[in-house]
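Ligand-bound model needed. iron/sulfur cluster.
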Amino acid sequence: MSRPAAKGWCPSALRPMKSGDGLLVRIKPNFGQLNSKQLLVLADCLDHFGNGLLDITSRTNLQIRGVKEQNYSNLILKLQTERLLGTSEKLDRLNVIVSPFIRENSLTWRCANQIYSSVENLPLLPEKFGFCIDCDESRYLSNQSGDIFIERSSGSGLVLRCAGLKKGFSTDESNLTSDVKKIIGWYLEKQNSEETERPMRMRDIVSKNKFPWKTSNELKKPLLEEVTVGSYQGYFVLAAPFGQLKSEHLRKLAAVNQKIQFTINRMLITESLPDKNHGLVNEPHDNRLKMNVCPGAPHCSSATIKTRHLAESLAHQKEFILGGNIHISGCSKGCASPNSKDMCIVGNEGTYDIVEKGYAWDKPVVKCSSQTSVLEHLKEIRS
Ligand code: SF4
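Prediction:
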């Protein structure tokens, strides 16, 4: 079965999206970082204007849910006053993922800074269009959802690589923004000649059109790194339980950190750990790390099951019952993961469809009528 088409658009803060529980407002902190004051402001915004919860998206953005329409303009004003949000439509739309453990003035930081600073001189980009800026010795972002990858070359320069291509276009810091603009111009020209309902991603454009510039394989040999929960080079890598933080998590983090970085895999990088009862995932064997879970009911109007409730209950089961990785999806759109999983549990008119080794939109092998029967099914197949 093919993936059902997504409804609505890719939301931002200035272009929120209606969801089952109110407006969904997505903010995109520069460099994925927030300082302690911003964390406290955000915690207050979650409590006053949202439902007290913050989603970390797979592209390191932050989502406030459950915003009532009459409160929306006050929320935006507060975010702008506290410099969690700008006023520019182009900046609001810009998607940038930077490598984890970013240091101020590092090559990744300087390249990202150029993209943020030059956004007003770039054309208005499609909502999903994004940059992955990954110029450290190790590469972390090669598998992330980006359209243009800015990477370090084997010499002292940079490589601009379009998603879908193995080789890139050589450049350097002084020519970065003009070369980015050139590639975007080509992409938009090809995009405009397509008659598609939604803009195509770069990967699809390069598969249909010859890239017009010389590419080189000067890309620094990738030492691909995964980001996993634990301590690393003096930092702590934590995961938000099922990708969601409570306002109290933000306050606890702000109490012991000057700033934190939100990063890939819905994780965060901190300098210090809050007290023992922080409620965040900091053990690599935590069952919650095996699960991708969408907001489900009542937060999304397409959902017919309470995904988080089921996930909490599975998190307390013995590891062998869960088996491998699990995707719990409120409906067959499978927003929480585009990848195949050992098992998907998918809401379908109130029942729990079980897909084995496949995607949320695949044909189920079993239908369970309740959470209890899901658990019984798991125990039966694992015994
Ligand atoms: S997969 Fe989840 S979040 Fe996505 S539309 Fe379905 S219920 Fe909503």
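The mean pLDDT is 91.
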